[in-house]
Amino acid sequence: MKNRTYNFTLVLVAFLLFQVQSSAQSSELKVMDTGWGRVDIKGFSLKANAKVKLVGTGESYKRSGNSEAAYAWILNSDTRKVVWNLLDDYNSKNSRKVIDFEKELDLEKGDYEVYYAAGSNYYNDGYDFGDLMDDVFSSRSKRSSRRSNKDFYMNVSGPSGIFVPNNGTEIVDEKAKNAIVSIIRTRDDKNIKKGFTLTGETKIRVYAIGEATGKSAVDYAWITNVKTNKRVWVMDAEWDDHAGGGEKNVFENKDITLPAGSYMVHYVTDDSHSFEEWNVLPPQDPQFWGVTLWALSKEDFAKVKSFKEEDIVKPIVDLTKAGDDENLSKGFTLEEPMNLRIVCLGESGGNDMADYGWIINADTRETVWEMENHNSESAGGASKNRMIDEVVKFEKGNYIAYYSTDDSHSYNDWNDTPPFDPEQWGLAIWTESEKDSKKLKMFNEGDFKTKNVIAQIVKVRDDESIRKSFSLDKDTKVRIYAIGEGSGRDMADYGWIENKDNGKVVWEMTYRTTERAGGASKNRMYNGTIMLPKGNYTLFYETDDSHSYRDWNDDPPRDPEMYGITLYYD
């Protein structure tokens, strides 16, 4: 009995040793289809050059110019290059083909990532006639209902002691940790900023992956010098390369050189197609959806320091984060001519702007800068989001900057996709240098009184009839600035000037002599000059029973504080 027990023990030990030896001979990992628009991720390291075995099943499906697939690929973690892709290896022109594959790859020592994805090359959230016919004749329905996810997978195996599996994310995390800045695995509706400071000129590798439709970037990155508030690098959809997968996946992998200074890296995404979920086939490097900056050498990396918040140059005029139904303003005086940088984000309302900014000469009320559709560009997000970023030369003088919004689609209350930089919704102005900022003074625009005023009737309410007398001791060129209400070629709120000596009207605000004053189409404005002979005069302004200062029944004019009439020495 003892011998039998001894023999059984030897057999058991031998069996266990065989199992341990067998399992030690090779290691294996598995990736599979985890659902439409999702990516399964694993990884492995090779401690030496080795043969790696691939076994699995995929699918290639083409119809009406669209392609759908369930497939795997392998990425070199150091070079970020694809070393094998099932669709490249088994490219088929057939309308549908299930691919059972078994293959060996000769791979060099290093780290690798393994991916499996299922998706389409074209985003269509509906169900069309082609889908119906496909279901009828193939007895297979579109997407996940056409097949079982578990049928599509890939096993990867290699020699024991050399092939070491991992979760596929730890190597990427390590590469991101060793970067100057890394924003990766970015999800939907993100606006991420990370800063860094350089003590000297530094060579940098920029690696960015995002989404572009046509020539417009949708998910993309840029770098801003925070002292000048200028973009020093922008991910340009027109010049980016295809990043694999769906056609809208793009990337940039380039070297740039930045001088000493402080910088902010931005990455923004819209409401779909990101690491969260792909609505077309994902890029070949999905974990790096975002932007990463690496120093090109140890010497360059030594110049990288923590971001200096104090280097951020704030705007001299900040009318941003504008909400619904706001009329914001700020006055400033330039002690000498200078260039100003203007950044304005707003909403297009068709032919006109619904949310927009403008700048006037405070002494003459003349508009010297204005945001309009024709001089703006896309601000990202919804097509109605528009922006201007430009440098404009201003003469010495007093100015007032304005920003106005309508009753919808504004900061923190968007009725459509917000712009890529929502906090900038509004108007902001910077000087080009710290030296210039010392020659710029701010003033309260509500208290501003120009010395050039001859007579003034403003902030006029409903059912008012106001008059003011004035005299001229010589023939004088007079600037008239008047805002009122007019429709149907007639004026409802308007002003005029009478000669006090003979009672004759010497000037009158008419519909034909006025132009749009912003806001509702019935807001009318006159801003021009006339010659008045020496003499005594009376200035009049009259309103009807609706739509006047602070009691508007439609959108107010863009200069509501000046509703009425003002006469200036020109």
Structural commentary:
By secondary structure, the chain is mostly beta strands. It has four domains: 25-168, Jelly Rolls, CATH 2.60.120; 178-311, Sandwich (Jelly Rolls); 317-447, Jelly Rolls (Sandwich), CATH 2.60.120; 453-569, Jelly Rolls. It has six helices and 38 strands. Strands 10, 11, 12, 13, 14, 15, 16, 17, 18 and 19 form a ten-stranded antiparallel β-sheet that branches. Strands 20, 21, 22, 23, 24, 25, 26, 27, 28 and 29 form a ten-stranded antiparallel β-sheet that branches. Strands 1, 2, 3, 4, 5, 6, 7, 8 and 9 form a nine-stranded antiparallel β-sheet that branches. The longest helix is centred in the first third of the chain and has 24 residues, at 2-25. Residues 10-25 and 125-146 have low confidence and may be disordered.
- The helix fraction, in percent, is under 10%
What is the terminal separation in angstroms? 124 Å
CATH architecture field of the largest domain: Sandwich
Largest sheet: 10 strands, antiparallel
Q: Compute the CA-based radius of gyration.
A: 34 Å
Unreliable residue runs: 10-25, 125-146
CATH class of the largest domain: Mainly Beta
Number of domains: 4
What fold name stands as the CATH topology of the largest domain? Jelly Rolls
Proportion of residues in β-strands: over 45%
Provide the structure class: mainly beta
Query: Can you count the helices?
Result: 6
Number of strands: 38
Principal-axes shape call: elongated
Average pLDDT metric: 88
